[in-house]
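Notebook entry, structure prediction.
Reason for the run: the old model in the group folder had no record of what sequence produced it. Starting over properly, with the input documented here first.
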Amino acid sequence: MAFIKKNMLLVVTLAISVGVSAFLGYRVIVATGEMNDSMRKVEELKKAIQKLNDQNIIPKKENLDNIIKDQEEVGAKKRKLQMIFGNPYRKAVQRMAKALGMTETQLREKWRTTFLEEADKGSTRALIFENFFNNLGRAKKEKAFAAFKDALKGSVEPLNNANINGCIMEALGVPRKMEPLVCKKFLSDMLHNLVTYMEESGRKEGTPFIFGVGEKNNKVKFLTFEKFEGEALPIPEQVPYIFKHLKLIEDLLFRIKASGLPQLLDISRENMTGKTLASDYLAFSYTIEVQGSIRAVRALVNNLLEAYKDNEVYVIRAMTLEDAVDEAEAVFSEGSKGNTSKSRKKDAEESSAESNVVLIGNSKEVKATITFDYILFTGNELVPIGGK
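New structure, fully documented this time:
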């Protein structure tokens, strides 16, 4: 006891040291236990992973069948959607496939396989085409060609022995080829046929169709191909694009006519080869200026937006309207200014309400400038556009 009293500081220090040592020893024991427990769990996980790796896990046949079925359905829907983009010959191909006792998909796949295999062997596209259809039998071939022609009887391009093969090949994904001089002659004939069709149809209906006004008349009648008005010839790489543009323009003119518009004041395109939107998609950009009633303009817009039903896709990028009548001239040239003005304003308001388009001025006659993209899916092309 005397020792403790004399060495109180030492005793306190020793007591604290013993307490701390005991606490640290306890923590070491606890940490060691936790570490051993963690190591045990790690070993258990390693064994579980190894056990899984050693297993040959196979999905149930039912699940595997469902996965394959889903993939096929998604693929089919994707292909069906792709087919509406810039595919003006699709209905003709469907009619031809039916005449051959096939579905459209079966015909396209059979043709694709044959064409790619024979092309790899060095066969020409003309020879591949002849052999493919000849092997189906003469009767079936004639029936199929007749069905194809019948489906396109509304076109201004006359289908005959000289061009039927090329037309069918294009419909099946092989862009048309033609010598530049022959292509220019074909282009000239097609432009003449399109202009003649529109003008004669207008005369028969009592409303002559007008291409451009004044100096623009001749330019508009070339329908964006004025570059080839003189002696200029298309280069070989442009030939497949020319055919696609002609088919687009034919469809566009038919829709303008169906909408009741009597005037195409101007038409232009950005370039010949278009622009790539994404993998396997191409866009041809056009601007047209038409004149007619607001009702007819509205009909054209609706017609373009619903063209997907015919496997053609137009995306309207911009549209402007302006009054086609000089209001000042109308005021000074008409005798009953007040009544006429009120009547014209009422007609314009009624037409505007029907079409949900705001009109400038009081006239029902408007000039509409429409800029649009025509979208094509090129993933079905067996030969790249512009390729050999």
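Summary: The beta strands are 210-211, 263-269, 275-278, 281-293, 313-323, 365-377.
The old model has been moved to the deprecated folder.
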